[in-house]
Structures are given as C-alpha cells and as structure tokens.
Amino acid sequence: MKLTTAQALVRWLLAQRSETLDGREVPLFPGVFAIFGHGNVLGLGTALEEYRNELPLWRGQTEQGMALAAVGYAKATHRRQVGVVTSSIGPGALNMVTAAGVAHANRLPVLLLPGDTFTSRAPDPVLQQVEHFGDPTATVNDAFRAVSRYFDRITRPEQLLATLPQVARVLTDPADAGPVTLALPQDVQVETYDFPDELFAPVTHRPPRPRPDRRTLTEAAGALRAARKPLLVLGGGVRYSGAGERALAFAERHGIPVAETTAGRTLVPHGHPLHAGPLGVTGSASANVLAAEADVVLAVGTRLQDFTTASWTVFSSDVRLITLNAARFDAVKHGALAVVGDADAGLADLAAQLESWRVDPLWTERAAAERGRWDEHIDSLRAVSGEVPTYAQVVGAVNELSEPQDYVMTASGGMPGELIGGWRGSGSVSMDVEYGFSCMGYELAGAWGAAMAHTGGLVTTMLGDGSYLMLNSELFSAAFAGHPFVAVVCDNDGYAVIARLQEGQGGKPFNNFLADCRSAHASPPRVDFARHAESLGCSVFTASSSDDVRAAYAKAREAAVAEKRPAVVVVRTQPNSWTEAGAWWEVGVPEHLSGREGLDDGKSGQVRYLKS
C-alpha cells in the first residue's frame, strides 16, 4: 500500500484497539491533539485531515496544555486509552517536554509526535532549528530522551515497521507504561513507501496479567502469617489492574487494615471498617499511626514516593516490606521482598497461600478507631467559623455536593493535602491527584482530557490562583470544543504552600505571596479571575463564604452540564489554614545562615538552624 510516512502512521493508529476494565473494546487512540506549524502541517496534518471522520482531532492553545490533557485522558481511562499529541518543530516541540515528565513520573501512557528538522539537511538551518556545533544530528527533540519511556527518530519511512510494535508495547505494558516520543522530520513525513497490508490489520491490546513467582509468594505468605500488625497499602497499580475489589476482599478475608497512596486514593469506601485512610505527608494521621506500628507492610502497585512514606519515616525502622508490583524496578526498592506480577492475579495467588489465616481482631479494629479520630478532626476543620473559607471547607462543600460517579482532581500547591486527606469517597475510582510530578497547570489542562474520557459523571478540578495563572488557556479549548467540567479556583494571593514551607523551616517571607514579591507599585494590580475565566468562554460563579461556596458550586455543576462548557467557581480562601497529617518531609534546609541584618526579626524561634 503506497502511503506517506504520515499516512501510514495515522492508518496504524486507527487499527489499534484496547480492552477496558469491564471488557469493552474501544480505540486505543481515541483522538489527537494538534497545533500545526511548519514541522507537521503538510505531512501529519494532511494525513489527519484525510481521516478526520475516523480519528477526532482537537486543537488546543498550548502544546503543553494539549499534552497534559492527553495525560489526564489516560489517567481517567485507567491507562486503557492513549492520547496523541503533535506539534511543529522547535518551541512547539519543547513545550511538550514538561508534560512528558508528568506522564513519565506517573507511569501514564501518551504518544508525542513532535515535528523535526530535515534529515536531508539541504535547507539547514531552517526556521526554529537549534544548531549544535559538534553534532548535526542533534535537535531540540533529543530533550525528550530524558522523559520518554521509548524514543525514536524516524529517518526512513520503513522504520515504522520496526518501531510501531515497540510503541504499542510500551503504551500498553503495565510494567513499562509511560510516554512515547516519535520525532518526525518534516521531509520524512511526506516520503512514500510501499507498506505491507499487515501493518494496518486491527489489533486489540489486552494488558498482560503476569503471575508472581510461586517461591516468592510462599515467602511473602510466610512473612504475613508471622505478622502481628500487618498493613495493606494500595497504590495506583491496583487501580490500573482493576484490582480494587480483589484488594478489599483480600483485606476482609484476613482482617488487614488498609491505607491508600496518592494514586490509590478512593479505591476503598471511606466508611469501610478496615479503611485506615490515606498514607503519608498529605495523608491522614490515622493511616500514619498504623504505619508506625505495623511490623509487615504489603504495598501493592505503588512506587512508594517520598510523600507517601514521609521520606521513609512513616514506617518503623524494623518493618518487613513486601511489594507486589508489575514493574520489577519498583518492586525491589528499599530492600523489599519483591513479588513481581499483576496486582489482581498476585493478590488472588497470595490469598490462596494464606488460606484462612487472620490477623488478631484487636489490630483489625484499630483501623476504624483511628480513622474515626481523623474524621472528627476533619469535621472540626470544616466547621471552623470565619468569613473567609478555608481549603478544608471548600473541599467539604465540593465533597458534599458531588455524586458517587463524579471525578475530582488536583495537582499542586496546598490542594493535594486537602483533597487527599479530607475527601470521603464511596469506593469508586473517583480521584486524580497528579502528585508524582506536581505540575502546576495540570489542574485545568488535565481536566479537559478527563472530561473527554469520564462521561459517566462530572469532573471537578480544584486549584489555587498560582496554578490558574501558570496555565489557563485550555479553559478556552474545552469551552470551544464543548467539554464540560467545573474548576474551583481558590485565590489566596500567591504560592501559599511554598510560603508555608519557607517560613515553617526558618526562612523569611520572600517571593511567594504577592505581598512579598518585588513590585514598582505601592498597590500592585490583582487578577480578576472571574472576568478572565469568563473571557475564555466559561460560565463563572464567585463565593466569599462557606455557604457561598456550596451555592456557587451547585450552580456551576448545573451550568457546566447544561451549557457544555467549563464552569469556574472563584473563591477567596484563607492563606494559612491547612490540614496536617503530622508527618515528616525531607527538604534541603540550610545548615547555616549568614547572619546578615534582616534575617532575624528578634523573635525567639523565628529563625531555626535545622539539620535533618
């Protein structure tokens, strides 16, 4: 079949299918995000236009925003579908590198197709080409190598025959999932080749479920039987495997308390008697208390990031760590007993080995008791009186008015701690907290992708004023395309959570709150977030009290669905009120301050000299 490289790539995308967790067959690549430029408009752009009825194409406003939307889409479909993003060469391509980092850190699949310079080099240097004096083969797209699971530069059309199977493998492999980058030189995109028909034969990708090694399972079962206070920790891998029900049944059968990581949040119904709560710095005191006492921890589908482990201080020093993970890379961390395999299959096999073994019921009962105390704490935070709402009160209002099938998300600033620690879920997979890369701006761009994918309920994204200003252009993309969601923007005049970190470790207020930033104005201007969001095509509601938040959010939900566009709720929030889980986090604190005038305000304890 005589096709250009770009045409062959598009036809291959159309031939790829995927099986969802509930057994439905869907397109592996449900659509493409594109901003055209001289590196992709005539090659890939022409091919996409030819198949526009079979492969939907969405135009964003920034390449980073589009790529983050694709990441949000992958998360909302539990990695069963993959967004494709294409850009021109140069700055358009480099704008996607941050999103590739988000996907890489969070183990989420996305296919990036940046345009590239000419392989012939005949017109060099072309517009937007960065020339490397000692390496003419290098282009800006080599920057993707550090944040791609798989990278290739297609310099001949026939190379697609070898590389496309690898692309599909990485995007659908539970152990290897992540971003794939195919750099496409603009002259190669339009070259033709006689491609074999077999390349375009329909293929349905079903993620494999490898079973753990039996000897390792026996060892893990022995360690659990010997445990007096075991703890089950559920991560994102449980979600992607569809093993939530299996994990809960495993906990119930053996009486093991359950904690969740950031990526595993909402897998367990909040009121379940074995639910200890979320673990770590942004988690709950209830889960952290149990983790400190646990003698064996079975961590399923998690890479045990520092916020989950409180920089490895949340567990006792002599804890026995067992990890069940599809990726050996994650399973072997920190000297764990590595059980490598699928979460669902692995838990089934482990339960068979444990048979009727159960934990001491006194330990089992601790989960409900500790979580009850944490619930009382959250209730007290939500009930605080004051004219300006706190984050906890805003989260409480959204939680109260949300439906079980809804989807809530955030990424950076102080909101992850509030949402992870304070949300009360029904047990459906209803939360996306991008806290692997903590990318400011993901909240809005990712919500656009999530709204495309999560059609069974309403998506609500929660963010601060800093994230809004970082990347808000995809509000217009979603409004223009007709994808509804609600964005709750909490305005506290700056980067409040970093100011909290700065001042809490002995630093002076500097360059975080707007009041502490350099300006030539005695009264610097402030952003009117409501008018700005309205100008981007959104319906807008404002709130200044807890009751206002409930009313505004209820109206925003109705407006988003009825008008098929984002609805934005703007809330003035308190800058210094937080939900604290009582856990340590390791950061670089200066061992010495210079003693220059102004560092110490004379108040005892205001400047601390800390060594971790």
From TrEMBL:
GO terms for molecular function: 3D-(3,5/4)-trihydroxycyclohexane-1,2-dione hydrolase activity; acetolactate synthase activity; flavin adenine dinucleotide binding; magnesium ion binding; thiamine pyrophosphate binding. Residues 218-350 form the Thiamine pyrophosphate enzyme central domain. Keywords: Hydrolase, Thiamine pyrophosphate. SUPFAM superfamilies: DHS-like NAD/FAD-binding domain, Thiamin diphosphate-binding fold (THDP-binding). Transmembrane segments: none annotated. It comes from the Bacteria. Gene3D superfamilies: 3.40.50.970, TPP-binding domain. Residues 434-571 form the Thiamine pyrophosphate enzyme TPP-binding domain. Residues 41-128 form the Thiamine pyrophosphate enzyme N-terminal TPP-binding domain. One of its GO terms (cellular component) is acetolactate synthase complex. GO terms for biological process: inositol catabolic process; isoleucine biosynthetic process; L-valine biosynthetic process. Its EC number is 3.7.1.22. It holds the Pfam family TPP_enzyme_C. PANTHER family: 3D-(3,5_4)-TRIHYDROXYCYCLOHEXANE-1,2-DIONE HYDROLASE, THIAMINE PYROPHOSPHATE ENZYMES. Belongs to the TPP enzyme family. This is 3D-(3,5/4)-trihydroxycyclohexane-1,2-dione acylhydrolase (Decyclizing). It comes from Amycolatopsis umgeniensis. The lineage of its organism: Bacteria, Bacillati, Actinomycetota, Actinomycetes, Pseudonocardiales.
